[in-house]
């Protein structure tokens, strides 16, 4: 791409807008606090460990309206080695709740995929609660882009 | 919005103890309750709030949905099939409507 | 303080320009296979075309968006195609007929048809597309009201009919009637800059094809997948709706759907995608 004066102007205007928002002191968002609260309710106050659960979502979503999200938890899915539930949260949405999956031994595997709405670039979180009471968490940042002219 | 119509993809046959993949899709706006109409009045929330999959009357998979689930909710999950039988899928709407679909599977 | 902010922002902007470099991203080198059938997403351009190769918009999308189109079950646009099928079989109008009453099974009677519109309408002496052909049938043969633009089941029925041409390469016969002169008119419109942003179709989809416009990867603006499922709308979008949206985004007043201007543009833009498979309903951002 040949960089013309017009391009440079456009880019710097964009960067100013970006820099300006960056300079504003951002208070911890209510959604982030709400997310914490929901995790604690789900785990019964237990801090989740990392491992066992994998959250899969795109690094960059072309549109926040339809973002694929998958979870999978390592488990034999029989006897006591069972995943009961997996909760998905989006900490930058007006309401962080996305969905909660409930599994049984008949699920065969603790995996599920759905499509979610993300209001902006943010962390998506998945928390798994096992039958033995242990809890695991995975987190991934998804960048939500805005379109060309229409946005 | 046309009446929500479920679509389900389940294999017709499986071997005993096989873990199969199931996909479901249903047409639904999933009105989040966050939007406003042209006059600035909030559009009331109306979503599908629960999805369940049962096999021969036993629970296989369930999901509680929040308004952050995209329009036309899609699910992909697995099920362990030990015998021939019937899968029953149900979607519960905020307005109380229940949409459902049944699919047979034969274990060979 | 304020001055410092502006200066540092400018510095940031310059740094940005320096580091980011040209915002170009290649279209992917992948095969689009829908339910096991390989689509043509790269075709040799017809004579007189500004590009050597015609590229489907699918090649410009992210891996997740591309995946949605590869399976007719996971493609959310197929829900509306199914609605279109129900309309096809529904009796409407004073003649007591449905589409199926005359045309039978669409899988046979409409096979490949959607790849060869717009055609020349000798009666109306102007081009006719699928939407207008449906309306003509409704009025003349079914005794039913024609659909208003994008209303009733227009998008769904159009998508159902075009789906029967899935995989068929787009080709239109410009020797029909005066179609060639409409092509010329469409070409003029394609290169005419409009609106406060002073952009033509070609400004984005030809001169800057492959580059990023903000976070969007500019494609060739092909219409072989319309009506297309847009993630943004969470539903099908018709080609005239997209034309109007694009012109609106240049901050210009925009022509009516099915007006002479947009019919001419549809003829020309369809030709620009000659050789690409029909992908209806494509999935785009």
Q: Give unreliable regions of chain C as ranges.
A: 1-22
Chain pair forming the biggest interface = A-C, 29 and 40 residues
Alpha plus pi helix count of chain C: 11
What number of structural domains do the residues of chain C give? 2
Number of DSSP-assigned strands of chain B: 8
Terminal CA distance of chain C: 41 Å
Work out the helicity level of chain C: 25-40%
Mean pLDDT of chain C: 91
Question: What does this protein look like?
Answer:
The complex is a heterotrimer of chains A (151), B (108) and C (285). In chain A, 22% of the residues lie in helices and 37% in strands. Chain A has 151 residues and is an alpha+beta fold. Chain A has one domain: SoxY domain (Immunoglobulin-like, Sandwich). With 108 residues, chain B is an all-beta fold. In chain B, the strands form 2 sheets. Chain B has a 5-stranded mixed sheet with strand order 2-8-7-4-5, with no helix packed on it. Chain C has 2 domains: 2-75 and 168-284, Cytochrome Bc1 Complex, Chain D, domain 2 (Orthogonal Bundle); 78-160, Cytochrome c-like domain (Cytochrome Bc1 Complex, Chain D, domain 2). Chain C contains 11 helices and 11 strands. Chain C has helices at residues 2-20, 63-69, 78-88, 99-103, 106-109, 130-142, 154-163, 179-190, 201-205, 239-249, 260-272, and strands spanning 33-34, 37-38, 42-44, 53-55, 119-121, 126-128, 212-213, 216-217, 228-230, 235-237, 283-284. In chain C, α8 (179-190) crosses α11 (260-272). Chain C is globular, with a radius of gyration of 21 Å. Residues 1-22 of chain C have low confidence and may be disordered. Chain A binds chain C through residues 1, 3, 8, 11-16, 18-20, 23, 58, 60-63, 65-68, 145-151, and chain C through 5-6, 8-10, 12-14, 16-17, 22-24, 61-65, 67-68, 76, 197, 204, 208, 211, 213-216, 218, 230-232, 234, 245-246, 248-250, 285. β6 (97-103) of chain A pairs antiparallel with β5 (58-65) of chain B, so a sheet runs across the interface.
Key attributes of the depicted protein:
heterotrimer, A: 151 residues, alpha+beta, Immunoglobulin-like, six-stranded mixed beta sheet, three-stranded antiparallel beta sheet, 37% strand, B: 108 residues, mainly beta, five-stranded mixed beta sheet, 54% strand, elongated
In brief:
With 151 residues, chain A is an alpha+beta fold. Chain A is 22% helix and 37% strand.
């Amino acid at each position: 791409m040949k960089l013309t004066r017009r391009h440079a102007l456009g880019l710097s205007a964009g960067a100013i807008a970006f820099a300006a928002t960056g300079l504003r002191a951002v208070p911890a968002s209510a959604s982030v606090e709400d997310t914490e609260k929901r995790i604690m309710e789900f785990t019964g106050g237990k801090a989740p460990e990392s491992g066992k659960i994998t959250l899969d979502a795109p690094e960059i979503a072309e549109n926040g309206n339809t973002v694929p999200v998958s979870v999978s938890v390592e488990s034999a899915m029989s006897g006591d080695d069972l995943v009961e539930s997996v909760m998905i949260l989006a900490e930058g949405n007006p309401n962080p709740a996305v969905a909660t999956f409930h599994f049984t031994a008949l699920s065969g595997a603790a995996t599920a995929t759905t499509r979610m709405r993300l209001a902006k670039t943010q962390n998506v979180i998945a928390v798994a609660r096992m039958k033995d009471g242990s809890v695991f968490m995975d987190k991934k940042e998804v960048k939500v882009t805005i379109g060309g002219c229409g946005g | 919005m046309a009446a929500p119509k479920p679509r389900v993809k389940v294999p017709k046959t499986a071997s005993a103890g096989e873990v199969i993949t199931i996909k479901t899709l249903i047409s639904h706006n999933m009105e989040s309750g966050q939007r406003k109409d042209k006059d600035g009045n909030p559009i009331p929330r109306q979503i599908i709030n629960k999805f369940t999959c049962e096999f021969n009357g036993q629970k296989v998979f369930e999901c509680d949905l929040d308004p952050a689930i995209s329009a036309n909710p899609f699910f992909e999950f697995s099920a362990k099939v030990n015998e021939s039988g019937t899968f029953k899928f149900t979607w519960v709407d905020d307005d109380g409507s229940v949409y459902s679909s049944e699919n047979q599977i034969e274990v060979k | 303080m304020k001055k410092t902010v502006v200066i540092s922002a400018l510095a940031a902007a310059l740094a940005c320009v320096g580091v980011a470099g040209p915002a170009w991203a290649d279209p992917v080198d992948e095969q689009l296979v829908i339910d096991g059938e390989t689509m043509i997403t790269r075709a040799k351009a017809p004579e007189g075309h500004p590009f050597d190769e015609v590229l489907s918009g699918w090649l410009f999308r992210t891996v997740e968006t591309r995946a949605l189109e590869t399976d007719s079950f996971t493609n959310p646009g197929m829900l509306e195609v199914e609605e279109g099928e129900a309309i096809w079989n529904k009796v409407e109008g004073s003649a007591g007929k449905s589409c199926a009453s005359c045309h039978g099974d669409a899988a046979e009677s409409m096979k490949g048809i959607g790849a060869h519109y717009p055609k020349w309408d000798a009666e109306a002496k102007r081009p006719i597309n699928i939407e207008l052909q449906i309306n003509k049938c409704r009025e003349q043969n079914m005794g039913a009201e024609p659909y208003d633009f994008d209303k009733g089941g227009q998008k769904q029925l159009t998508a159902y009919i075009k789906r029967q041409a899935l995989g068929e390469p787009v080709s239109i016969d410009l020797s029909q009637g005066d179609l060639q002169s409409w092509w010329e008119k469409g070409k003029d419109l394609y290169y005419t800059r409009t609106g406060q942003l002073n952009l033509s179709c070609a400004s984005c989809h030809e001169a800057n094809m492959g580059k990023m416009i903000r976070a969007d990867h500019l494609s060739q603006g092909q219409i072989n997948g319309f009506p297309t499922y847009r993630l943004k709308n969470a539903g099908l979008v018709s080609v005239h709706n997209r034309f109007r949206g694009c012109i609106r985004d240049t901050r210009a007043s925009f022509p009516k759907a099915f007006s002479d201007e947009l019919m001419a543009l549809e003829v020309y833009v369809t030709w620009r995608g000659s050789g690409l498979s029909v992908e209806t309903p494509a999935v785009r951002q």
